[in-house]
Amino acid sequence: MDRLVALGLTVVPGLTVPAGIAASLGEPGTARAAVELVEQLSGRRVGDSARPLLLRLSASAPADIAGLPPDLACLGVTPDSAGDLCTVIGRADALDEVWTATVRMIAEYGLGVPAALLDDALLDNPAPHARVEALLSLVARHAGRPFPDDPAEQLALAARAVLARWDSPRARRARKAQKLPADLDIALHVQALRIGPADRSGYGTAVSRHPESGRFSPQGSFFRGVRRSAPPPHTGELLEKLAGGTVLLEHALLTLERHLHAPVSVDFEVRDGEVSLLAASAQSRPPLRASVCLAVDLVRDGALDKDAAVRRIGPAQVQELLHPQLKLTGDEELLARGLPASPGAATGTVALSSERALELAAEGAHAVLVMHETTPADVPGMLAATAVLTGSGGIASHAAVVARGAGKPAVCGVEGLRVDKAAGTVRIGERVLREGDAVSLDGRTGAVYAGTLSVSVAGPPPELSTLLEWADDSRRLGVRVNADTAAEVTTAVALGAEGVGLCRTEHQFLGDRLPLIRSVILAADPTARDEALLALEHAQHEDFRALLAAVGDRPVTVRLLDAPLHEFLPAPGEAGDAAAEQRAASLREANPMLGLRGVRLALLHERLYPAQAEALFSAWVEVAATGVRPQLEVMIPLVSLPEELRAAAAFVRDAAETVAARTGVRVPYRLGTMIETPRAALLAAELAEHAEFFSFGTNDLTQLTYGFSRDDVERQVLASYQERGFLTASPFARLDPHGVGALIALAVERARSVRPDIKLGVCGEHGGDPDSIAFCDDVGLDYVSCSAHRVPVARMAAAHSTLRGSGSGSDENGTPA
C-alpha cells in the first residue's frame, strides 16, 4: 500500500500496524486512535447516516503463505444502524452475510464462545438476518456481555480474534507444512469501508491484460454491495457493466505495469464513481501472450531495453505459443505415455495405415496415424494425418523426424502399443481401440488420451515476431533449417531461418518417389542401373531447382544420400519378381544403421553421388539464370576415413566439371562433411584438409558414442536410466556435454588448427534444444540447424545464450541479471 501511495495511485484510506507490534491493535487506546485516523483520512465518521463508514481488518505476512485469517468486514455495524445502512445500499440483506462471518469469528477467537455452539446457532437459523441475531444473542449469554456497539471496541476484539486464529494449533501446523516458522508474525491492516448505493458502489478484481490477445485491456469482475473475504464464484458482473469502470482503472493498471514490469492484478472498491485500490500485485502466472505483449510495450515506452525484454521470454515459452495445446480438465482418460517426439497437440480418428489416413483426409476428417513404426513409404499418410503415434522408435526415429519437419504432433515409443491391421484394432496396454475410434495426443508431453479433447488454436501475437527480431540482433549463432523440399524452406524462412543447414536428399525419395532409388539399388545389371540413375537424376534436378529457388541467396547445405539401406528395400514379397526378391534379400543387414549407408553406399555405387551432384549443379545454373545465387554447400555423410572423403570429393568435383563443360557456368560451392562418427571427430584435422565445412550430425554421433540404438533404447533403457538418476535427460534430446560434447569440442579445435576459417554447425535434432544450443554457442560453432517449426525456439535460445554470456539484461522474471 505504501508503494501504491508513492506511485500517486488512489488507495482505500487506512493504516498498517506492522508485524511484531500487531498485538497493540487489540488494546483499546490503539484501536480508538486507529478508528479516528481512518475517519480523518476518509472524511467520514463511523455511524454517520449521511455518508456512512465502516471498517475492515485484514492480515498479511512477510512471505507467500496459504492460510491467512480471513478479512473481518462490517466493523462498526450495530443492530440499530444496520437497517439504515442497508437502506443506503438499496438491499435489505446487503450486510447480513458479511456481518455474520465477522461476528462468528470474533465470538470464537475474541470472546471465547465455543465453536460448536456457534455452528449450532447457524444451522438452526438458515435465514440470513436471523443468523446475525442468533449469534449476537449467543455472545451476550456466553461472553458475559453484549457484542459491543463501539467501533473501537469492535476493532480491538477483531484484532485479538485474528491474532488468536493465527496462533491456533491448526494454523501452526499449516505453517509447518509450508516450511515456515511457527511463530511467523503478521501485520494488521485497518481500511475504510465506505458505504454507498449499490448501483454506484461495490468492489471487484481486475487484471491488466486480455487473457486471449495479451493486449492491454482491463478485464475483471464487479460485485455490488459490501466486500467479503471470498466473493461467491460466478456471481460478479463484467467490469464493462460498471459505468466508467474500465476507464477508471486504466491509469492505475498502466502505472503498475510500468512499475512492476509484469501483468498485474488489483483488488479495488468503487464508491460514488471513484476507484480506490485495496491491493495490487504482479500476476503469479500471467497468460503467456500477456507477458509477450507487455515485454514489447515496456520497450516501446522506454521502461525496458530490448535485451531485457528478450530475456523475459524463454525458448520453451516460444514453443508453447507456436503449437496447439490440449485443453485439459482433469477428467481425461489417459491411455499411455510415450516419447514427446514432435510438439503440438491434435485429436482425430485412428488410422492404421498410410492409405487409410489419406482416405480420411480426402473426406475432410482428422486422422491420427497409428503404426508400430513408419517407413519412407508411409510419408504420404503421415503428411495427410493430423498426428502420428508409434509403438517403437525414439525422438530421432523416422516418424519423429518426418513429423517435426512437417509440423505434425507425434508421440513415439509407446510401450505396449500393438497394431493388428487384419483385425482393424490397436491395443494400448489393456485398452483396445478400433480403427475409427477417437484419440487425442500431446506431442510436447508424450501423453495419449482416449476420445476427442478440445485443442487450443496456435497463434502467437505479432509482438512475438518483434521479440524474435530483437533476439536476432543479440545472438551470435546463426539459425538454419533442416528442410528437404521447397515448401519446408518457405515455411522456415517465414519463421526466420537464415538458410538450410541440412537437406536430406534421401527424403526426396519418400512416398511416390521410393521406386526411383529402389531401382538403383536393386538394378539387375549396369545398363539397368544407368537407366535408373538417369531417372533419379531427372527427378532430383526438379526437386533441387524448386529447393534452391525457395532458398534464394541464402546458404544451403545439401547432404548426398545417407540413409540406412533397409529404409529403401521393399518388404519381403514386394520386390516384384523372384530375382529382385533375391537381390533384396542379399542386401538386408543385421545392423543397417551401421551398414551400407552414406559414403559407403556411394563408393560401391560409384555413379550415385555423381548423378546427384550433377542434378544439383545443373539446377543451380538454372536458378542462377533468374538472378538468384544460393550459397551452395555439398556435404558427404558418414565419413570415418579421410580416404573416403577424398574419394567422394573427387566424385563431386568431377560432376562440377561436367556441368561447367555443358553449361559454361562454373558453380561456386563449398565441399564439406558430416561428423557423425567418433573417429571422424578425432580425425577432424585430417578431414579438414579436404573439407571447407563440418556439420555435426549429433543424432548418429550420440548413437555411436554411447553405443545406444536411437530407435531402441529410448523407450526402455533411457527411461529407466532417468528414473535411477543416471541421466537427467535423453542424450538424443539434450546434447551430452561430457561425452558427445567433448568430441565436438575436440573436433572444433583440431579442425580450426588446420583450417581457421572452416565453417562449423550442428544439424542434428539438438539444433532445436535450448540447452544444446547454449553448448554449441560456448564451443564456438557458427550455426545450428533444426526442423522448421523449431526455428523460432532456436533463435530465442541462441539470443539467451549470448545474453547470458554477456551478463546483460534481466532474467525471465524481469530480475536484473
Describe the 3D structure.
By secondary structure, this protein is α/β, with parallel strands linked by helices. 42% of the residues lie in helices and 18% in strands. Strands 10-20-19-12-13-14-15-11 form an eight-stranded mixed beta sheet. The chain has an eight-stranded parallel barrel with strand order 21-22-23-24-25-26-27-28, surrounded by four helices. The protein has a five-stranded antiparallel beta sheet with strand order 7-6-5-8-9. Helix 16 packs across helix 30 and helix 19 packs parallel to helix 22.
Ordered list of secondary-structure elements with their pairings:
Blueprint: H1 2-6, E1 14-17, H2 28-42, E2 53-60, E3 72-75, H3 79-89, H4 96-110, H5 115-124, H6 128-142, H7 151-166, H8 169-177, E4 187-194, E5 202-209, E6 216-224, E7 237-238, H9 245-260, E8 264-271, E9 274-282, H10 288-300, H11 306-311, H12 315-322, E10 334-337, E11 339-342, E12 345-351, H13 354-362, E13 367-371, H14 379-384, E14 387-390, H15 398-406, E15 410-412, E16 417-420, E17 425-428, E18 431-434, E19 438-442, E20 447-450, H16 462-474, E21 478-482, H17 486-494, E22 500-504, H18 514-521, H19 526-551, E23 555-559, H20 578-587, H21 599-604, H22 608-624, E24 631-636, H23 642-663, E25 669-675, H24 678-682, H25 684-688, E26 693-696, H26 698-706, H27 714-724, H28 740-754, E27 759-762, H29 770-778, E28 783-786, H30 791-806
Parallel strand pairs: 12-13, 13-14, 14-15, 21-22, 21-28, 22-23, 23-24, 24-25, 25-26, 26-27, 27-28
Antiparallel strand pairs: 1-4, 2-3, 2-4, 5-6, 5-8, 6-7, 8-9, 10-20, 11-15, 12-19, 16-17, 17-18, 19-20
